Amino acid sequence: MERTHLMRVATSILLYTGLLISGCASNKPVREIDYNAEFENGKAALNKKKYIRAQEKFNTVVVGASHTELGDDALFYLGESYYYAKDYLLAVAEYDRLTRRMPFSPYVEIARYRICQSYVTLSPKFFRDQTHSEKALEKLQEFIDDYPNSKHIVAAQDDIKILRNKLSHKSFESGVLYMKMEEYKAALLAFKLVTDLYYDTDYIDQTHLKIIEIYIHRGEFEEARNHFESKRKNIENLNMADLVNAWFDQGRVFDRIEMK
């Protein structure tokens, strides 16, 4: 009995001591974060191209002070720190978060344009997957529609032209590849993408010439002549009208060198 009593007393003492220590610990003052200082330190790190440190500082402000006047500033500069570090998809995520959470922020326009720039930068060579190119086109057109007087309009329009040309190039080269494989139906579908969607690009004249070639290869001379007559200007742009007429005369496609 005495042993059991002593164990109970010891347990009570340990429990009381633990509660006392816990209570004292909870009374210790928690360091208050100076979010203005964190934000300024983040900008200083960004200016010095210390992007990871800048991200840490801005993220601290975003997490703890998004409800204050610093909220949109910190979120925008967090996006900037990712953008200049070339982490474009992370940058897009932060810019997008800003535009959705704080649609009346003065940073929204430039954030929207940064999203465009990020996708444009991610756009690969024409022979690769063009998902980012298509996304860039979508975002650029939305930006132009929403900010017609923006100082970035000319640059946005130039980017659209480059991207459309790239997508046109991809479709055109796909058509050429199908022609080499004598898959003329698939080739026509690829060229139709150019004529339907990218009619104002650098590949439109060559595309119409290739369509005439396909019809001749398939023995569809009436379709070939009709296409030639309706798109004669495009063929003349290539200085190829005389060669196409020679194709009709001989009923086959051949290179210009054979005309000599």
Topology:
Elements: H1 2-26, H2 35-47, H3 51-65, H4 71-84, H5 88-101, H6 108-122, H7 131-146, H8 153-180, H9 184-197, H10 204-217, H11 221-230, H12 232-237, H13 241-250
Could you please describe the fold and organization of this structure?
The structure is a single chain. The chain has helices at 2-26, 35-47, 51-65, 71-84, 88-101, 108-122, 131-146, 153-180, 184-197, 204-217, 221-230, 232-237, 241-250. By secondary structure, the protein is mainly alpha-helical. The protein has two domains: 35-166, Serine Threonine Protein Phosphatase 5, Tetratricopeptide repeat (Alpha Horseshoe), CATH 1.25.40.10; 170-258. The N and C termini lie far apart (122 Å).
Number of helices: 13
* Oligomeric composition of the shown chains: single chain
Strand content: under 5%
- How many strand segments? 0
Radius of gyration: 33 Å
- Specify the CATH homologous superfamily of the largest domain: Tetratricopeptide repeat domain
Name the poorly predicted regions: 1-30
Based on helices, strands and strand pairing, what is the structural class? mainly alpha
Helix-strand string? HHHHHHHHHHHHH
CATH hierarchy class name of the largest domain? Mainly Alpha
What's the number of structural domains? Answer: 2
What is the 3D form? elongated
Mean pLDDT over the residues: 90
Q: How would you characterize the largest beta sheet?
A: none
Short description:
This protein is mainly α and 260 residues long. It is built from 13 helices and no strands.
Features of the shown structure:
260 residues; mainly alpha; Serine Threonine Protein Phosphatase 5, Tetratricopeptide repeat; disordered N terminus
